[in-house]
Design brief:
Blueprint (H helix, E strand, L loop, with lengths): L3 H22 L1 H11 L13 H5 L1 H8 L15 H8 L16 H11 L12 H4 L46 H10 L9 H9 L2 H10 L9 H12 L7 H6 L8 H13 L15 E3 L14 H4 L7 E3 L21 H13 L5 H12 L17
Antiparallel strand pairs: 1-2
Helix pairs in contact: 1-4, 6-10, 6-11, 8-11, 13-16, 15-16
Bound molecules: heme C (2 copies).
One heme C binds next to helix 15.
């Protein structure tokens, strides 16, 4: 599991605390936590942010609960951080599913390919053009111009934390970041390469790439393949993670959030945003209809285009809200310019609620605390051959 040693020490500490709490609270708290975890366990991949929750505070509580007398019932009231931990989570350092191992050679090749403009037909458009890593992986455009300036129909989501998601793209049509990486290079309005073979031919002509593929895929008869290109980009993408102040708060640092941010978090939980925006990535764990309560005007069929299932019309992947204050404009169509407007529309279309301006303001302030720290070394543009 991706959280590795770093996560397990922390988790056992808070599990001990929650264990003690549950002991006192009895069935009531168990019901609360079980309710909080509901909804996403099936849809999560091995690397999904729900992983930490899968182990379940409740089962841990049983282990910690042996032979101690019940405490006072007042302790049933969970703190804000405990409530948040039940549905959200500390971001793991990397998105590595069970049994998956990234190597430095794969990561370094993946980084080069991420910045490589020659993967496009005009030699100029790289992954970083539409997902600039120094700008939280989003280009600030409603929809992104490709190699000939033509724009697609959808907003470019961030590449940070994407590897944790249940699937890739707004409609989930690729299962992971490896499968995803194959698409934009050949997409006629994105990078526009005519064929996989054309991509491989270009790479074969650059000795540094031939060596880098051999180093990344040692022992393979033909290291330079389109499949391996996708694996290398995926290895790099799995390390695009930005821990934030919110993680410190979840870990128990009460002072990591301001009073206004905490008020926003409380509203975020109370209003019902976490029925959909869950897990360590605060989204990315499930698909939901856009316009569940009040229809949202869009022509985009969403997940219907992937499954052909009428119930999937206007269904999209619930996006991660990490760094959301820095990835405007919003929604799959990029038509929502500001974060306050996005929050207002969410409450209306998804929950049937009209939030007061003060409530929107507090939620927006909380969401800004999800802006993380970019690892400038990991994400620096490498020297290209
Ligand atoms: C011309 C702009 C453009 C380029 C170049 C581009 N992308 Fe994207 N990317 C997009 C758009 C637009 C989407 C959303 C498309 C959709 O959902 O249908 C997307 C989606 C993604 C996603 C899914 C994220 C999520 O939350 O679902 C990942 C990961 C990603 N791109 C990585 C890459 C990589 C890696 C490259 C280089 C091989 C790349 N992109 C090149 C525009 C671009
Ligand atoms: C019923 C599920 C659901 C609920 C409840 C919900 N959301 Fe969303 N949220 C979504 C979906 C689905 C999208 C993607 C919309 C799209 O495809 O355009 C989204 C998008 C967003 C976005 C835009 C992110 C981006 O990168 O474009 C923000 C911000 C957001 N939600 C915040 C909230 C807040 C705040 C609440 C509570 C007031 C909330 N959401 C409640 C499902 C939900």
């Amino acid at each position: 599991m991706a959280s590795g040693e770093r996560g397990s020490a922390r988790r056992s500490a808070w599990h001990a605390a929650v264990g003690a709490l549950l002991l006192g609270a009895g069935g009531l708290a168990l019901v609360f936590l079980a309710g909080g975890c509901g909804g996403s366990e099936e849809g999560s991949t091995a690397a999904a942010p729900g992983g930490a929750r899968k182990e379940g505070p409740a089962s841990e509580a049983k282990a910690g609960g042996t032979g101690r007398p019940p405490a006072t019932p007042q302790r049933a009231e969970p703190s804000l951080a405990e409530r948040a931990r039940a549905v959200l989570g500390v971001i793991p350092p990397v998105a590595e599913p069970e049994g998956y191992e990234r190597t430095p050679a794969k990561i370094s090749l993946g980084r080069m390919l991420y910045f490589e403009g020659r993967l496009s037909v005009n030699g100029k458009i790289s992954c970083n053009s539409c997902h600039p890593l120094d700008r939280f992986g989003a280009d600030g455009e409603p929809t992104s111009p490709g190699h000939d300036g033509t724009r697609g129909e959808r907003n470019s989501p961030s590449t940070y934390h994407a590897a944790f998601h249940v699937a890739q793209f707004w409609d989930g049509r690729a299962k992971d970041v490896e499968e995803q990486a194959k698409a934009p290079i050949l997409n006629p309005i994105e990078m526009g390469m005519p064929s996989e073979e054309a991509v491989l031919e270009m790479l074969r002509g650059i000795p540094t790439y031939v060596e880098a593929f051999a180093a990344a895929f040692p022992g393979e008869a033909t290291p330079l393949t389109y499949e391996n290109l996708a694996i290398a980009i995926g290895a790099f993408a799995r390390g695009l993670v930005t821990p934030s102040r919110f993680d410190l708060f979840l870990e128990g640092d009460e002072g990591a959030l301001t009073a206004h941010e905490k008020e926003g978090l409380r509203l975020f939980l109370d209003v019902g945003c976490t029925t959909c925006h869950q897990g360590a990535t605060i989204g990315g764990t499930m698909f939901q209809k856009l316009g569940v309560v009040h229809p949202y005007p869009t022509e985009d069929p969403g997940r219907f285009a992937v499954t052909g299932n009428e119930a999937d019309r206007f269904v999209f992947k619930v996006p991660s809200l990490r760094n959301v204050a820095r990835t405007a404009p919003y929604f799959h169509d990029g038509k929502v310019a500001t974060l306050p407007e996005a929050v207002r529309l969410m409450a209306w279309h998804q929950l049937g609620k009209e939030l007061e301006p003060g409530e929107i303001d507090a939620i927006v302030t909380f969401l800004a605390s999800l802006t993380g720290t970019i690892d400038r070394v990991y994400t620096a543009k490498p020297e290209l051959p």
